[in-house]
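for the recovery benchmark. tokens below, seq after
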């Protein structure tokens, strides 16, 4: 995919379980859609997608399930702000009251909630708020296992993107599966402190793929996060996740 965040070698996550959101770097909308290809409809709170539909009640654009794949191929990284909330049916948008619409506008403008952005009328699972999509994202998850699904899918996709070339010059497909959510459970507490998965420093052997992990702290400024990451002692890991090529399974190792 073109026009995505340039450095795709690291994934940073900082979770806030109480308020149901995750601050992240290195996970963009295309990654998110790979984890949830069954997204129904998206109410676009901030965007620059030209082919969206328009809802007269909210005066907001939206895309249905048929348009979402087209939007993933758009230049989302250069939208600057890209914010949406999912919903089940357009008719439900027409039942949102003024207070609820105001809350959604506040959410997309301030990138924070007046109340948790999960609406019975919309039956939404997510609220997605990004600036320079993939550079810094704040995503609300009704169910936190959905976040672990997003993370596990994105990590495996990054590894598969690094497919090696054969002697004939063709790319060799690397079928590394998504990381099951339970493999990420041992890191739940550390993710609350701010955790980085260094895909670019993954080590490959004939039998394993190992991804180093560091707990680096709470950052919103991702330039500062990078500086902290680059200055860390590479020998002092806080954990790692390992794919066993022979057993075709993932394992977690915590310091």
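predicted aa per position
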């Amino acid at each position: 995919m073109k026009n995505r965040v340039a450095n795709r070698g690291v994934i940073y996550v900082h979770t806030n379980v109480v308020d149901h959101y995750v601050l992240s770097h290195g996970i963009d909308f295309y990654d998110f859609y790979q984890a949830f290809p069954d997204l129904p409809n998206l109410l676009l709170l901030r965007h620059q997608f030209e082919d969206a539909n328009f809802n007269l009640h909210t005066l907001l654009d939206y895309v249905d399930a048929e348009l979402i794949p087209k939007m993933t191929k758009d230049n989302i990284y250069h939208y600057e702000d890209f914010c949406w909330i999912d919903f089940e049916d357009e008719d439900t948008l027409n039942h949102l009251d003024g207070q609820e619409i105001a809350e959604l506008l506040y959410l997309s403008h301030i990138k924070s909630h007046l109340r948790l952005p999960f609406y019975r009328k919309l039956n939404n699972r997510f609220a997605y708020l990004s600036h320079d999509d993939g550079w810094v994202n704040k995503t609300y998850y009704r169910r936190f296992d959905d976040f672990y699904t997003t993370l596990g899918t994105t990590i495996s996709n990054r590894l598969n993107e690094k497919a090696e070339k054969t002697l004939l010059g063709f790319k060799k497909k690397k079928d590394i599966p998504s990381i099951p959510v339970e493999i990420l459970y041992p890191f739940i507490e550390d993710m609350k402190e701010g955790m980085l998965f260094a895909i670019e420093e993954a080590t490959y052997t004939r039998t394993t793929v190992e991804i180093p992990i560091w707990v680096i702290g709470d950052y919103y400024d991702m330039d500062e996060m990078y500086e902290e990451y680059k200055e860390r002692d590479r020998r002092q890991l806080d954990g790692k996740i390992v794919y066993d090529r022979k057993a075709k399974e993932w394992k977690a190792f915590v310091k």
